[in-house]
Inverse folding.
């Protein structure tokens, strides 16, 4: 590699490091690096393709949660995946649960990871979205504790019973619960009665 090439490569490494080892063609082009450089690095095995227009320096170091949200920008981690992030479940999700607005086309995303999509109206989709740090240090979008509990209660007939009862038990015994917020969400989702029953039994 010549001096000029090395500079391009170093800049690509820098971009990758700033983005948790995931970078897009667009990011490289915006830095003034030609698209051909990506092809060259791919052919020499220096970088790997992880999705359409997405690359990484090393597949092993990719944060799967961050990578998923780069591919599915509207996706918010929910249900069992959100419960795991909030320590409401100790079960590492082998299938990611993700909520998207109704009408969002997930079939074009070409994602290898196993994902269970939940589709919901735009109005309800935006309730309780927050950002946390993934186990590997990336910023990811997830529903907050109270929204996670509301989702589990709302869809309790479709949710794994062990996950469900564990999450509710842990939540209501936790110091980090926010009952005011929970009841506010409960009113919107029309599950106030169910939540009041759980509060009486579990608190």
């Amino acid at each position: 590699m010549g001096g000029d090439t090395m500079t391009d490569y170093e800049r690509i490494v820098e971009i990758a490091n700033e983005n948790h080892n995931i970078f897009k063609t667009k990011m490289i082009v915006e830095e003034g690096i030609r698209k051909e450089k990506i092809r060259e690095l791919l052919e020499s095995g220096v970088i790997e393709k992880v999705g359409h227009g997405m690359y990484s320096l090393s597949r092993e170091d990719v944060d799967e949660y961050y990578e998923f949200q780069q591919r599915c920008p509207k996706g918010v981690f929910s249900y069992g995946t959100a419960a795991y992030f909030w320590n409401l479940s100790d079960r590492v999700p082998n299938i990611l649960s993700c909520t998207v607005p109704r009408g969002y086309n997930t079939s074009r995303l070409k994602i290898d990871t196993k994902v269970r999509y939940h589709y919901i109206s735009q109005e309800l989709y935006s309730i309780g979205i927050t950002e946390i740090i993934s186990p590997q240090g990336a910023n990811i979008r997830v529903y907050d504790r109270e929204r996670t509990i509301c989702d589990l209660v709302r869809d309790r007939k479709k949710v794994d019973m062990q996950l469900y009862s564990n999450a509710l038990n842990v939540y209501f015994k936790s110091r980090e619960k926010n009952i005011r917020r929970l009841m506010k969400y409960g009113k919107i989702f029309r599950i106030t009665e169910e939540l009041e029953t759980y509060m009486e039994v579990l608190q």
Observations:
- The mean pLDDT is 86.
- The radius of gyration is 20 Å.
